[in-house]
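Title: Request for sanity check on CBS-domain-containing membrane protein prediction

Description:
We are preparing a figure and want to confirm that the structure record we downloaded matches what your pipeline produces today. Could someone re-run it with the sequence below and paste the raw structure tokens into this thread? We only need the token string, no images.
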Amino acid sequence: MQLRSIIKSKPAAKQLARFIPGIGGFLAILLCSTAGELVHAPLLMAPLGASCVIAFVLPQSPLAQPRSLIGGHLLSTLIGLCALAAFGVHAWSLALAVGAAITLMQLTRTLHPPAGADPLLVMLTGASWGFLLTPVLLGAALLVLVALGYHRATGTRYPTAWW
């Protein structure tokens, strides 16, 4: 069977299409990591890997839009930093920070599930206030820019709304 006929077959095309978002995630994490090394500042955190899943697999989702992706990470990180400063790290303060992040993301229309991990990350690592800028703001913004370029290159509409 020729490669052309394999690609044209619906099951094969469907399988091939499942690899494409992985390329977007690869590019986003590679760029964040490389740019961070060049500027000597962290531009990566684990929740951004989960953000890649939403941004590259579900680009039409409200959860993938720049407002949610960037805003959700900023708000949740800020809540984690405030909880850390005010209460320290306890089972109840970790739970309070995550609950507050979920509630405030909903109220501000910045719901982004991977950002729910940000307060835990902040509090368990003892992150400083600078964490809000790098890796959170710059990393999330860079991820959105990569998603924008990626989806333009693949012919997918993204974002559906900027803010």
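Thanks, this matches our download. The chain has one domain: 3-154.
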